[in-house]
UniProtKB/TrEMBL annotation:
GO terms for cellular component: extracellular space. The keyword Signal applies. One of its GO terms (biological process) is immune response. Residues 27-87 form the Chemokine interleukin-8-like domain. This is Chemokine interleukin-8-like domain-containing protein. GO terms for molecular function: chemokine activity. Pfam families: IL8. Keywords: Cytokine, Signal. It comes from the Eukaryota.
Amino acid sequence: MVSVKAPVIVFVFFTICLLAANTSAAYRRCCHRYLSFKLPFEVIEGYSLQTVTEGCPIDAIIFHTKKGKHPCTNPALSWVMDYVNRLRTKAQRVHQNPSKA
């Protein structure tokens, strides 16, 4: 009976290690396609990044809107990167002078 328990314990241990290593992709939704239209900048509060190295099928910029939506956008589009740069600039200004936030 001991000979069967050891391989099972090793298998369970490695399974847990693999799941723990991929937790970030396993517990959040991945974008599978991009938004087909340009968002107005005024509706965006922030953004996050998705990469294929996280176990998701595409790289994406995920904007966070004031209405709680999370549209996936193509980082190769110029308007997407323009919005990202504008949000970064805004964040840097707030960081440098928090009293004007």
